[in-house]
């Protein structure tokens, strides 16, 4: 009897695929679903700055370096099993979901869950792509069930080819950029070579549609034994998987000695080693949470890339009376000196600074709807400075969700203007002359649409609702 396995994704819901046969039989749905709304990844600047600066220190020059010389930062999103408020394609009216918006200092975003094939929800793909960040899904197998899956797949080379091809087609159809491969079950030693063939085939299929697509290996199974033995370093027992993929995500219980060994084994690819940091602190230096800085600082001292696991801790572990944005600001403030910051590399450029949620919704400066809403697909390009909630210590930039131009609010700039005859901006007029070698243009100009106006000596905030930068 033929059994049909339908893709669970619809025009309303983003879902993972949990059954191996559903992956093997996968074909693009006959009825269009949310995939038609995915946007392509934008280009980022070819150079970056070291340090996510507080707004009051922006006058201090930052260290500038070419993209290829900077260690990377991977953000692995694991929150309460995944597919929470973010699974709703058209958003919802809850406004209590988690949103991440510090994209300028992130290179790769991984959506993680414990389903066989995790397909990142639409909102996360679009928010990351809009800011030039790669988005990976997750392939995970664990325990006895994982062993059964690989026993079936590795019984026939045609099956592993079919599995790899289906995974690549799923990635291409849903517009994300590859996978984190997390195999936490043993592979029979006699099948390890065939397992390696699968990884190679998957990577070839992914890159056939876009050479930037990638596979990152999680530090679990060792070669050639096939058993699960976390190494916490790049060494001879996991180097084979590193060579077959675009990078390795190391386990969390590393020491300085592990990092020293890693550096030796990585050679010229040290930036493809993502040293794991569990923000919940499980077996990790610094104990996670606000102590995450201790681990990140140690990793950067060796010039290696960082994989932050579950930074949604700032939201998930909020105590009564605490504000998520204040905790979020504090967390990234601690890390700021060890992050590498990128910007857009295209013109014209436009952003409303929308976070993808709010308690009001504005269209062209008019209130269209009052009431809470959450839709990450509406998140817009975010600035590269360190932004907090209103009143956060040392923050002159914050989000204002009481007034806006388009979306859920505006960017609040709270600075005292000392020049007696200076008006910072006027609605709809050019606000600045702008020169940058990145754009290779002499006089691109900015246009700001703001609510309110900050004059000389005025300490009230300027609310910027929309920024347009055009070719001069």
Commentary on this structure:
With about 475 residues, the protein is of the alpha/beta class. It folds into two domains: about 20-345, TIM Barrel (Alpha-Beta Barrel), CATH 3.20.20.80; about 355-420 and about 425-470, no CATH class. About 20% of the residues lie in helices and about 20% in strands. It is built from ten helices and 20 strands. An eight-stranded parallel barrel has the order 3-4-6-7-8-9-10-11, surrounded by five helices. Strands 13, 16, 17, 18, 19 and 20 form a six-stranded antiparallel β-sheet that branches. Strand 10, helix 8 and strand 11 form a beta-alpha-beta unit.
Tally of separate domains:
2
Portion in helices: 10-25%
Strand order of the largest sheet: 3-4-6-7-8-9-10-11
What is the CATH homologous superfamily assignment of the largest domain? Glycosidases
Average pLDDT? 85
> Architecture of the largest domain, CATH level 2?
Alpha-Beta Barrel
Number of helices: 10
Say what the CATH topology of the largest domain is.
TIM Barrel
């Amino acid at each position: 009897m033929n059994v049909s396995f339908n893709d669970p994704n619809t025009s309303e819901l983003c879902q993972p695929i949990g059954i191996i046969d559903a992956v093997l039989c996968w074909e693009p749905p006959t009825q269009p679903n949310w995939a038609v709304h995915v946007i392509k990844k934008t280009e980022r600047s070819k150079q970056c700055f070291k340090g996510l600066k507080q707004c009051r220190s922006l006058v201090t020059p930052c260290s500038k370096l070419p993209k290829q010389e900077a260690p990377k930062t991977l953000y692995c999103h694991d929150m309460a099993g995944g597919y929470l408020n973010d699974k709703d394609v058209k958003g919802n009216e809850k406004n209590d979901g988690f949103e991440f918006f510090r994209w300028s200092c992130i290179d790769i975003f991984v959506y993680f869950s414990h389903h066989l094939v995790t397909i990142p929800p639409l909102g996360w793909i679009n928010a990351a792509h809009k800011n030039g960040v790669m988005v990976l899904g997750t392939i995970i197998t664990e325990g006895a069930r994982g062993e059964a899956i690989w026993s079936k797949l590795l019984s026939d080379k045609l099956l592993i080819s079919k599995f790899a091809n289906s995974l690549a087609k799923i990635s291409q159809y849903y517009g994300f950029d590859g996978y984190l491969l997390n195999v936490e079950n043993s592979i029979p030693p006699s099948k390890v070579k065939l397992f390696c063939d699968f990884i190679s085939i998957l990577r070839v299929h992914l890159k056939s549609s876009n050479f930037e697509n990638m596979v990152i290996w999680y530090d679990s199974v060792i070669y050639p034994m096939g058993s699960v033995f976390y190494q916490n370093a790049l060494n001879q027992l996991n180097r084979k998987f590193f060579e077959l993929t675009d990078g390795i995500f190391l386990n969390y219980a590393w020491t300085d000695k592990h990092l020293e060994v890693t550096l030796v084994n990585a050679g010229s690819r040290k930036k493809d080693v993502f040293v794991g940091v569990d923000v919940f602190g499980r077996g990790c230096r610094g104990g996670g949470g606000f102590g995450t800085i201790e681990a990140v600082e140690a990793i950067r001292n060796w010039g290696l890339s960082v994989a932050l696991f579950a930074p949604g801790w700032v939201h998930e572990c909020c105590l009564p009376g605490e504000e998520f944005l204040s905790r979020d600001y504090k967390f990234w403030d601690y890390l700021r000196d060890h992050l590498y910051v990128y910007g857009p590399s295209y013109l014209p450029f436009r952003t409303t600074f929308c976070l993808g949620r709010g308690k009001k919704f504005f269209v062209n400066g008019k209130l269209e709807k009052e009431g809470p809403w959450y839709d990450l697909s509406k998140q817009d390009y975010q600035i590269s400075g360190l932004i907090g909630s209103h009143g956060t210590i040392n923050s002159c930039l914050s989000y204002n969700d009481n007034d806006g131009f388009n979306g859920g609010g505006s960017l609040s700039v709270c600075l005292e203007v000392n020049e007696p005859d200076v008006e910072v901006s006027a609605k709809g007029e050019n606000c600045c002359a702008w020169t940058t070698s990145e754009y290779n243009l002499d006089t691109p100009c900015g246009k700001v649409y703001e609510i309110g106006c900050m004059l000389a000596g005025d300490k009230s905030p300027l609310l910027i609702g929309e920024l347009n930068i055009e070719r001069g």
